[in-house]
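Standup notes
- DV: blocked on the single-chain target, sequence here:
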Amino acid sequence: MAVKLIPYFVMKGNATEAIQFYEKTLGAKVAFKQTFGEMPENPEMPLPAEAKSLVSHATIQIGEDVIMFSDTFPGQPHQSGNQVTICISSNDKEQSSQFFQALKEGGQVEMPLQETFFSPAYAIVIDKFGVTWQIFTDSHQ
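- DV (later): unblocked, structure below
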């Protein structure tokens, strides 16, 4: 049995913007994207007009891994926070620096990119969508 851990980001109406941001900054490729308006209609639960363009489910691929997304359905509660963090690992300091520079735009640096005892280039950044990224450079790869 194969087991995968797939980070799932539940966004507050800006999943499309987040996906576009990760395409630009991390070279992500959209593997699947569907809006609530593209889903089969349920006559017992009519879809509010404001929900039609929101993402019901999406999958992007970054390198060999995937991240899944959805927007919260209108009226459902949403809370941003640090309940999900993503560690993006590279064996190239320059690549790690590029990730750091891109992800910090409009975001907040928790720990600047620096050499640590476990990595030649490590940082923690909260991006403009509230997602916490650990940038890890693996010198053992």
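- Follow-up: The CA atoms of residues 19 and 60 lie 7 Å apart.
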